[in-house]
Description:
Elements: E1 23-29, E2 37-43, E3 63-67, E4 70-74, E5 78-82, E6 87-90, H1 91-106, H2 111-118, H3 121-133, H4 138-144, H5 152-161, H6 168-178, H7 180-184, H8 188-204, H9 206-210, H10 225-233, H11 236-250
Antiparallel strand pairs: 1-2, 3-4, 4-5, 5-6
Amino acid sequence: xxxxxxxxxxxxGSFSFAGLPEGEMTLIVSGAGFRRRQLKVAMLAxxxxxxxxxxxxxxQPIGKIKVKGLQVSIAxxxxxxxxxxxxxxxxxxxxxHTRAKVLSSAxxxxxxxxxxxxxxxxxxxxxxxxxQAASVFTxxxxxxxxxxxxxxxxxxxxxxxxxxxxxxxERATAFVNREGRFLQQHATPAxxxxxxxxxxYRAAGIEEISDPRVFRLPPFLQMGQAPGIVRRxxxxxxxxxSLQELQRRLYS
Length: 252
């Protein structure tokens, strides 16, 4: 309950405090022309804790996000308002809320259980619907956490289990590098479809390639849309099996 400072940053914007006690500290940072920032920092005994603090220009407009059942105001810190209950949550409280809803909606206590839900299209869609009903939206989380390129599963797994965040591009590249045998099991025309689906996944995520309407878009339009794609795989059943396997292997 004692204040240290204020101190000034050096020419590189770096600062340090020495001899702080163990526990949770409140760090307040301000500068001419920037909005004041306040955040919590956990200190451990005999360890150095590093923290990067981004300040926004004072004239920068406050961002707002509104989706069904949730309003988000982004100023110095994000505030999440659950419209149904009127709760106002800080970012950390909203992450805690998200973690609890992920565990309860997926009915799992580990990452493997979450992946099992995610790779099954029907279970994934119900899971996402359950989260949204609880005012949890992965696109909002991606925006607020500055992780717009992250795969939705990785974002949720990071919040729920501390798993590393991977981007969609990283997952697609890993698939190509790892799943050469799976790709070679398909003739060239079918393999072209799988690789094109991976490009769609990089851009928009797993729901994009799970929706049959994706075959109405280029380059599948030039392949004859859904009927042409089915011919490349030999049958609708073979196409469906390959798409299911593609999704499963993306998250191996």
